[in-house]
Amino acid sequence: MKTDVLTLDGGTNGSVDLNDEIFGLEPRADILHRVVRWQRNKAQAGTHKVKTRSETSYSTKKIVRQKGSGGARHGDRNAPIFRKGGVYKGPTPRSHAHELPKKFRALGLRHALSAKAKEGNLVVLENADLADAKTKALASKVKELGWKRALVIDGAAVNENFAQAARNIDGLDVLPSMGANVYDILKRDTLVITKAGIEALEARLK
Length: 206
Hints:
Layout: E1 2-6, E2 12-17, H1 20-23, H2 29-43, H3 102-119, E3 122-125, H4 135-145, E4 150-153, H5 160-166, E5 172-175, H6 182-187, E6 190-194, H7 195-205
Parallel strand pairs: 1-3, 3-6, 4-5, 4-6
Antiparallel strand pairs: 1-2
Pfam families: Ribosomal_L4
GO molecular function: rRNA binding; structural constituent of ribosome
Subunit structure: Part of the 50S ribosomal subunit.
């Protein structure tokens, strides 16, 4: 699949061939859903915690004598049925992450890239280099190019000036090729990949 290469100034600079095995697949929602769910579950903190009856601070004295009261045989006030007592089987700190095969994660990334290409929201950029880290200058270029919610994927490393200039632009994210992931690609309307990023992704997913 052949597509034009744009420059930051809005012009074109030739074209590039995109690998159909990476950018030309028929996107499958079930694959994308599984990978996004794996990402979000892995990122979930899981720090919620309640106190059990052994951790609550209350009297441990036996409420009434064992026999003769006509009531239940309660021990102490920390039992879950009492106010201020411990919680029974409540949440404790844990990891929400689950396993997903590495090959399946790579397949999900291929389908995410293919989805953007099929929608016509994939842009190939000559490079993402700036001489000066000026947010105002980059913001005007982004506006001229019509990128409202965009993710820029560069090569092995992101140009420091470009990353610094993009930091304060709302709706613009910048990642190196190794940071490319399904969730961030689908979250943004436009996917912008530099030529170096294309080469790095094809080497990573071949």
